[in-house]
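From the methods appendix. Each design record in this collection lists the tokenized structure first, followed by the designed amino acid sequence. Records were kept in a plain field format so they could be parsed without special tools. The example shown here is representative of the layout used throughout.

RECORD:
FOLD TOKENS (313 positions):
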């Protein structure tokens, strides 16, 4: 439309009519004379508005969903972190309880044998040198640890110290093939030498080939001169098999050690030997035998065939 005097006059007229209709609609309230026209317009333009709204809403919803998804992801990540921390805390509590239990058993053994010990924790299995059965503990020369000291735990003999550093030490386990310790049979004076065999039972050579030994008998350390490398009375293990002597000067035994060498955590290094040999006092109490149930069968004699009447005939 060209910008002429007539077009300007028409625009002013339309604006005036619009203001007049608005004024009449406001004053009419619910009975407005233009209400019918409004409803007609709504019926025409309503579907168009809904279509536009339907087209726009998914975009808005998607934006909202993405925003809320980010919030949910952050919350999920937070919950996962809290869950992991809780599991770690619970695991730490379980481990702490296990160590307290081990320490309690260790102190019990030290008290019975009157051993002066320095507690330590296993921080590594195996050593840099060779394929020896060794462990590394977190105590060394700064803690009074010296070479050739006895190492034990709450179950019995663990090994001996072989290498000492300022803050750590290496312990050769009793299961190592190069390990040998003098032993004494419980409640007797039968002496022998126990050697490690890796993950197999210890091999013990008794000096007396005619010694009467049976499965289930127990051994302790005999002790060394000046108590190095071994103090006396430390539990070693239980006899699991006895080879026939065959007239030999020595007798071979196989002994299951008290210590589980694959589960070592808290140990004690004997820094002060007992004043006297504790003999068998450090050995754990023997388990009480489980009674074997006996079944008594009572046989009741049966009546003769045919009954009493047939017997009288």
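DESIGN:
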């Amino acid at each position: 439309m060209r910008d002429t005097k007539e077009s300007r006059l028409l625009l002013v007229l339309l604006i005036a009519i619009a203001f007049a209709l608005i004024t009449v609609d406001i004053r009419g309230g619910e009975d407005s004379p233009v209400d019918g026209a409004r409803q007609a317009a709504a019926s025409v333009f309503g579907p168009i508005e809904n279509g536009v709204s339907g087209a726009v809403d998914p975009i808005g919803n998607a934006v909202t969903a993405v925003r809320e998804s980010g919030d949910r992801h952050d919350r999920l990540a937070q919950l996962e972190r809290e869950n992991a921390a809780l599991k770690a805390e619970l695991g730490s509590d379980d481990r702490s309880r296990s160590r307290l239990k081990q320490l309690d058993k260790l102190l019990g053994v030290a008290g019975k044998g009157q051993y002066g010990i320095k507690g330590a924790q296993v921080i590594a299995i195996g050593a840099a040198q060779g394929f020896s059965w060794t462990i590394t503990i977190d105590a060394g020369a700064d803690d009074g640890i010296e070479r050739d000291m006895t190492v034990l735990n709450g179950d019995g003999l663990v090994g001996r110290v072989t290498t000492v550093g300022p803050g750590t030490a290496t312990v050769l386990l009793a299961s190592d093939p190069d390990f040998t310790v003098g032993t004494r049979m419980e409640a007797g004076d039968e002496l022998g030498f126990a050697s490690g065999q890796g993950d197999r039972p210890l091999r013990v050579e008794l000096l007396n080939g005619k010694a009467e030994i049976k499965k289930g008998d127990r051994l302790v350390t005999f002790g060394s001169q000046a108590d190095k490398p071994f103090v006396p009375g430390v539990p070693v293990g239980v006899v699991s098999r006895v080879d026939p002597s065959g007239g030999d000067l020595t007798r071979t035994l196989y002994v299951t050690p008290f210590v589980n060498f694959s589960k070592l955590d808290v140990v004690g290094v004997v820094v002060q030997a007992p004043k006297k040999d504790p003999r068998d006092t450090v050995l754990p109490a023997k388990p009480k035998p489980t009674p074997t149930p006996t079944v008594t069968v009572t046989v009741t004699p049966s009546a003769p065939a045919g009954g009493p009447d047939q017997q009288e005939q």
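APPENDIX NOTE: The first strand starts at residue 116 and ends at 125.
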